[in-house]
Amino acid sequence: RTTRTKKDFLTLLDYSPNEIIDLLNLAKDLKKQGPSAPPLLKGKILGMIFEKSSTRTRVSFEAAMLKLGGHAIHLSTRDIQMGRGETVSDTAKVLSGYLDGLMIRTFHQSTVEELAHNSTIPVINGLTDDFHPCQALADLLTILEYKGSFKGKKVAYIGDGNNVAHSLLIASAKVGMDCTIITPNNYEPKEEIVSYAKEIAKQSGSTVEVTNDPVSGIKNSDVIYTDVWASMGQESEAEERMAHFEPYQVNQELVSHAKKDYIFMHCLPAHRGEEVTAEIIDGHHSVVFPEAENRLHAQKALLVHLMS
Ligand code: CP
Ligand code: NVA
């Protein structure tokens, strides 16, 4: 990948703390400017390949392109030849000739990397089994809006240690926010990612913790974050997972161990009564809808950074 000069957004590991802060500042500016923002992506076309369902990612990317004067094309793998076995690399080479950027939501991180490696246009990871960096960018923007800063703040993620947790962990370490990941036994984040995060946190002066204990993990947190117990592709494990995750529900009892002014976050879609009670997600500490809106603003900044 050393010979390529184009920029991609595959994981936040590839972005420096300064680059992330610049993206957040640009996102804040674009959000403030709203409809009066200049058409920074005039004439640009983004392709969006989806191998999994999506509401927020699809609509926020498409809206971001339209609002900045560009265009987006939705490509479901149910419709395109990639879904019938055309290779990722042939798809990348062909689409590079038509488009200015490509977003993909898929299963394996290696598919995103292969697409990026074979494209001459920027590639964006719109969620894999391992990462969800666009979500993490919007989450940082939201935390900044509600908490004012990252240093000295603590985010406690409780639930499955997979894509959203991994990206939140990396994002927190990059910006110097303390992060605790609380999971049932055997659902911890990948060790490799935890050790990357610890390395990064050392430089930013923050802490990374992984625990199986909800109460001690939630203590002193400014942000409580959760996600579904069975992710896309894990539908057949849903019942088994339910039993393991039940003690990890975000409910009134659990949040009583956080700071009084904690905020509740969730990438959505949510399952009320499973990972979070309705009382919490619909209560006054919840910022899940501003968080969802911030997908749009964060991605506007990302698209401008990559494509203009
Ligand atoms: N949070 C998120 O990525 O939502 P969608 O699956 O609806 O895109
Ligand atoms: N962990 C969830 C996130 C959805 C946005 C999933 O992968 O399905």
UniProtKB/TrEMBL annotation:
Its EC number is 2.1.3.3. GO terms for molecular function: amino acid binding; ornithine carbamoyltransferase activity. Residues 7-145 form the Aspartate/ornithine carbamoyltransferase carbamoyl-P binding domain. Residues 151-305 form the Aspartate/ornithine carbamoyltransferase Asp/Orn-binding domain. Carbamoyl phosphate binds at residues 54-57, 81, 105, 132-135, 267-268, 295. It is found in: Cytoplasm. One of its GO terms (cellular component) is cytoplasm. It holds the Pfam family OTCace_N. It catalyses: carbamoyl phosphate + L-ornithine = L-citrulline + phosphate + H(+). Reversibly catalyzes the transfer of the carbamoyl group from carbamoyl phosphate (CP) to the N(epsilon) atom of ornithine (ORN) to produce L-citrulline. HAMAP family: OTCase. This is Ornithine carbamoyltransferase.
